[in-house]
Design a protein that fits this description.
Blueprint lengths: L3 E11 L11 E16 L5 E4 L2 E12 L14 E20 L2 E13 L2 E2 L3 E2 H4 L1 E10 L3
Antiparallel strand pairs: 1-2, 2-3, 2-4, 3-5, 4-5, 5-6, 6-9, 7-8
Length: 140
């Protein structure tokens, strides 16, 4: 009856040079992905709501660099990383665009578990609200 969505998701993480007030010579890169489950309220209506729940795993790399480096492509010697689990519940407003395409606008809260890079990066640094714009392809 098209009232439940199940699929895969993937997200990339990239930061500018600051991570919530930590050392300004640090940058972050990584990503996470997994499964999503999405109950859909009134799926046949042109505009409707869904309640996405995303569960997955990911990894993050933290690197420090010297501000005096003239070559931005140099890889730093001091980099470290860690793996984590992610849980993202949310709410989304969806628009039926075509028979096979939906456009979604939503807000979610990202919970990270298992991330600990000493005092440089912790779970709380990545926990928080996120907004999303998504294109959903399928048989609706």
């Amino acid at each position: 009856d098209h009232s439940m969505g199940i699929g895969l998701f993937g997200t990339g993480l990239v930061s500018a040079n600051e991570i919530k007030g930590n050392n300004p010579d640090l940058s972050i890169g990584g990503g996470y992905g997994g499964l999503f489950f999405e109950p859909i309220i009134l799926p046949k209506s042109p505009i409707h709501m869904s309640i996405p729940l995303m569960i997955g795993v990911g990894g993050v790399g933290l690197k420090s660099y010297d501000n005096n480096d003239v070559d931005p492509y140099d890889y730093p010697e001091n980099s470290e990383g860690d793996a984590f689990m992610v849980f993202k519940p949310g709410v989304e407003l969806e628009f039926n665009m075509l028979k096979f395409l939906r456009l979604g606008l939503g807000i979610q809260y990202r919970y990270i578990y298992g991330l600990d890079l000493d005092d440089k990066l912790k779970e709380d640094d990545l926990n928080g609200f996120t907004g999303n714009l998504c294109f959903k392809f399928g048989k609706f």
